[in-house]
Amino acid sequence: MEPRVFDKVLIANRGEIALRIHRACKEMGISTVAVHSTADSDAMHVRLADESVCIGEPPASESYLNMAALLTAATITDADAIHPGYGLLSENADFSEMVTEHGFAFIGPSADHIRMMGDKITAKDTMKRLHVPVVPGSDGAVEDAATARRLAAEMGYPVLVKASGGGGGRGMKVAQDDSEIVAAFSTARSEALACFGNDEVYIEKYLGRPRHIEIQILADSHGGVIHLGDRDCSLQRRHQKVLEEAPSPALNADAREEIGARVAGAIRELGYLGAGTLEFLYEDGEFYFIEMNTRVQVEHPVTEMITGVDIVREQIRVAAGAELTYSQDEISFTGHAIECRINAESPVTFAPSPGRIGDYHPPGGLGVRVDSGMYSGYVIPPYYDSLISKLIVHGKTRNEALMRLRRALQEYVIEGVETTIPLHQALCENPDFVNGEYDIHWLEKFVGLD
Ligand code: ADP
Question: What is the atom index within ligand 1 of the atom nearest the CA of 288?
Fold first, then answer.
């Protein structure tokens, strides 16, 4: 057996990702501490953890985002390390700094790298310097509407005004022509200030029909850097991913290897540590970097299914100073994987549908994985994200994965709340999706027509 890298890890998250981290820890012989709000006392991540600490009231700002409460929980349980999961505090550089200052290991990159990539202008500049192709646009921040207008005219319409501190698709405004640029600039700016407390914006060429393709990387502190290929996350609604697959139906092996190697080279030069994802738009055979996420992503399982690499396990190992388990030549891609994000929402209006789960029966069988904390009788609280389950399938070919997905969706029983399962079922029957012919705008048209 491998030596244990930590004795005890505190999981600063909830829901399926808290469970996912717990599972990796247990398989490594590491004890787990769950934290929870008063609304989550009965949640599965709390039930399965070795220990749990209640850290506050239901609103995330009073519990899962309360850094002092999290550090206290880690102290009283004598944890060695904190895993932030995704969302919540995972990309908060101050939190990662506080964690290490208090003597715990932060399972993620350095605060400097989180800060660098959290500022999109700096992130783009950095990637450009490291020879990663970026979306054409302004050189840094744009100070006023007149400059925005001049730059937009130079690069050609349509353009996109984006917030440097942006996330979740907010603070982004398209200008189709000169008559729209001044309004787009000032709306993006005020939205950015309201949402992120930072009104810095920049301008990019707006791509008309790109795919969203991202590259997963892993890096250790011994110079080991590998890429785990690509994921296609083009199926989005309001810039939120709905279904992801790996590998992208749009890439061939040479293109995949080329971009993967380029990204791994840049990450090596950066001296980055841990898991990370570089997000690109891909159009007419060209990649354009848009941002880097410095954490594990919701859609990481599709990569795990085609590579066999446990991404969370590698995150934990490298945070403890161990080497990555794999070198690049030990990574190969087998078959095809698809993930459906199942939300407790109306599949038509997308209104949240929290409440008590009645009958619950997840699908199973060969090539089927369900990452979820659901169980019969569980009450989905109204305070948090509506993602309740991820259904992931793997097949030898994309077609086999699709057949398996249809079968698994049909088996899945979640009673008592509305879910987006019917949306995924409709998607699986659509010829464009079946043929892999879609871009980032496709799904919004599809749900609009339905
Ligand atoms: P956020 O951090 O808010 O999610 P991103 O920069 O990752 O912002 O962009 C989110 C989504 O917005 C992308 O996946 C893509 O669908 C769209 N988008 C971003 N930049 C562009 C662009 N230059 N042209 C067209 N669409 C874009």
Answer: 23
